Amino acid sequence: MEPNNSAPPTRGGEEEDFPLSDKVEGPISAAIIAAGVGATALGLLTTLTEASTSVHDGLQWSDSVGPLSGKAVLAVVVWLLAWGVLHAVLHNKPFETVRALVISLVLIALGILGTFPLFFQLFA
Description:
Elements: H1 26-51, H2 53-58, H3 68-90, H4 97-115, H5 117-120
Helix pairs in contact: 1-3, 1-4
């Protein structure tokens, strides 16, 4: 009897059947980048709220929460829209997740900067 060689390769160190360029990581990259876009939106909205009283008043959807209610909801809406658009654009493309992670980390850093009081109080 001959051994059965038709079994699929295992992940135990064996190479996969298809080259790296055939992997489609676009949907994963879209989700990663969208997270960065949402974080940047929150930072931008926080800074705009401090810079403009009309934006502050416009984002105050709940008196007990203040303008945080509008900032949080709009940041989530931006995140979801970005995820949908990026998924549609990247869904069949080989986009490296490492590159998406770097892009997202830069966007998250910008978002965090926008939420730091020392930064957004410069615009008050």
